[in-house]
Amino acid sequence: xxxxxxLLLPEVVDSLETDPEQMLDLANELHAADLADLAQALSPELxxxxxxxxxxxxxxxxxxxxxxxxxxxxxxxxxxxxxSAATAITxxxxxxxxxxxxxxxxxxxxxxxxxxxDEEESRDIRQLLAYQDDSAGSLMTTDxxxxxAETTAEGAIEEIRVIAQEMETxxxxxxxxxxxxxxxxxxxxDLVTAPKGSTLAEIMNxxxxxxxxxxxxxxxxxxxAKYDLLALPVVDHHHHLVGIITxxxxxxxxxxxxxxxxxxxxxxxxxxxxxxxxxxIELIKARLPWLVILFLAVQLTPYVLExxxxxxxxxxxxxxxxxxxxxxxxxxxxQSASLIIRALAMGRLQLSDAxxxxxxxxxxxxxxxxTLALIGVSAILARPATxxxxxxxxxxxxxxxxxxxGALLGSGIPMLLQRLGIDPAVSSTPxxxxxxxxxxxxxxFEVANxxxx
Amino acid sequence: xxxxxxLLLPEVVDSLETDPEQMLDLANELHAADLADLAQALSPELxxxxxxxxxxxxxxxxxxxxxxxxxxxxxxxxxxxxxSAATAITxxxxxxxxxxxxxxxxxxxxxxxxxxxDEEESRDIRQLLAYQDDSAGSLMTTDxxxxxAETTAEGAIEEIRVIAQEMETxxxxxxxxxxxxxxxxxxxxDLVTAPKGSTLAEIMNxxxxxxxxxxxxxxxxxxxAKYDLLALPVVDHHHHLVGIITxxxxxxxxxxxxxxxxxxxxxxxxxxxxxxxxxxIELIKARLPWLVILFLAVQLTPYVLExxxxxxxxxxxxxxxxxxxxxxxxxxxxQSASLIIRALAMGRLQLSDAxxxxxxxxxxxxxxxxTLALIGVSAILARPATxxxxxxxxxxxxxxxxxxxGALLGSGIPMLLQRLGIDPAVSSTPxxxxxxxxxxxxxxFEVANxxxx
Lengths: 453, 453
Description:
Two copies of one chain form a homodimer.
Chain A: H1 3-18, H2 20-29, H3 32-41, H4 44-53, H5 56-64, H6 68-81, H7 83-92, H8 95-104, H9 107-116, H10 119-129, H11 136-139, E1 145-148, H12 153-163, E2 172-176, E3 182-187, H13 188-193, H14 200-203, E4 211-212, H15 217-226, E5 231-235, E6 241-246, H16 247-265, H17 280-297, H18 300-311, H19 315-319, H20 322-345, H21 354-382, H22 389-419, H23 429-452
Parallel strand pairs in A: 1-2, 4-5
Antiparallel strand pairs in A: 2-3, 5-6
């Protein structure tokens, strides 16, 4: 809960319980995002009351600013109390948020709401609902400004003035032909500064960056960020304009994708909502499978160790350094993986650079490994109990090798996955560390066989 | 390199070498972001040529779309060849990008460019240069639309039309009093749809979300994302408007902050630029200190192991399971840390929830640990060499304990750091894993003392 919410919550609860008029005044002074924070902090009964006290437009503003999972909860809770209050709100919600919310609702409630809309509207929504989650189609709004190319700039401004209220943005308008084919984009800035009498065809930009409805949201965000677009038009396979995605959605996507990648990197399946509101069972489902996979991956280590310790006279002493060696390899691998996975996700590293990356990581690994070896050997030689030349050499060689191997696997595995068309972030850092772990042990004892054999 | 760049590069190289006119045609057809990609892929000589062939406006567009580190390189390279071409470009660059670039240049070159500007301009820039890197002041542009509150909507549109060319955005205008105090915000949408004759004072929104020039860029991005702002006004301590930050900068900040957090999570100091263009020495500087710290953190493990193995008759057999136990604790800690650190960074988890989080992580840890224990014990009992009840009990108890401890430390340490005002992301996942490693070993052998006495 943010501090504004914490401070205002008692006043809101009090107003709702005793003086709904006062609640309306308060709501009109607050930003919708803050009002949404408050609504999410209320009890189910009081949140129902909030939505019935406020006009549907404010109710819609609140829902548009809620976390996705909490929004569904709030709305279903309201609908269970008053279906008419619920339909009044869906009638005035922004087209893209409305579809997103409808997609999350219980099927019976969704159908009830769709039945209440006029036929064209409900057909449009059913069409939008059919787009895959996380696709451009599921994100876009159909409330965009489309104009004929022969309109003049003044005429366009006049048209925009009339329809502005219902549009997601009026800062970008789109010139289309009678079939809906996208011809060009015109910003309101262009319209306002256009010489008198010029037509859209004359001032529009015909080099349009577009996306297809089935494209992934990651690509949408990348295009908007790269080309500094206020809105990205979505077209079908005939280049007909079917919707637009605005830049404020792109920020949300960038945040969401980064969160998902960080969770994957930490060996957690991406959560649907915020950590704190994720049900216990969902948290287990997101974590248990990966933890089990990682556990199975290191099941080989007892066999490897048994094999080596049975044949080695210094087995006990060597075992003291297992965590040191294994964790150094794992850490070096984690460093490389975090750098490479993020660079690949941001499109700032191409697979054509793979050789250069591997060569670099080898050099980095050797240098890092040598430094650790220097420290490790000093620590060993400083203690009478371990002041054995063979042991020092073993630790030194093992450290250089496993740190270099870590850097190579940490950079190589993500690039290999990208090559195979798999999201590199699934090769979580614990996964890289586990692979390095097993290899580290083998290397360590083989080196020991040479120097302490 | 993106595929567009790869495809066009030969044509660009050819045009620059043989037919500069053709290069100009090509440049006019391309989007500035793609042109920037191409410029960054050219040799130093050809990039100099590109900037001298293109008009300064296109040169400015290119630099505005480059990666920060490459931009400095390209510009310094151009300035070394032709200082007049360089000054022509800085004259037409967007105010915020120009300041960002000047901040990165060699001091002599910077002073040379400042000396070339008129006095007022160079004073403005010196003022902007004084703001701390990553602060709102360093990001803002001074090219915003400020209007008097008594202006009519039509008058405002007329004023905007005249100055539109020089403004970063015209979609948000700001009403100020004669002292420059910010009174309200008006969108171009409000202006276009305002009833005839209404003044800004009547239609403006006086509830303005603002930021201070010294605020951190993370806060700037959070405000823009939360309130869906197209631009965020920056004010000084007297509430005078001093600049604005636009939403396209917020996307870049969100991406940059997520990249930095991911690198910190992977125990790497955030890189200045892209991985692939980071000099080798910078890569070492970002990684070596953390790797050494982590290595020092596990220096205790040989002592712990020596202590326990010397006193335990089953030491060799117990050593086989060290990687299994330690990595399970580390993985569980990594999972918790990735979830909690991201939730804290996004402001979606508050420290007031700390108790709830720790209680939850304990339950999650116990359940995850029990599952791993079940698998681990089955594997042990399946092999004649390890079919020993005491060993099975040791592994089971140790797994449950270290996995729970991992979940607790992985969530607790980041929250503790946040409490102390330290960025939780510095408690990288390898750091959490190392702490869990050391504790795991002690727990494991203590448990073994009980069951294998």
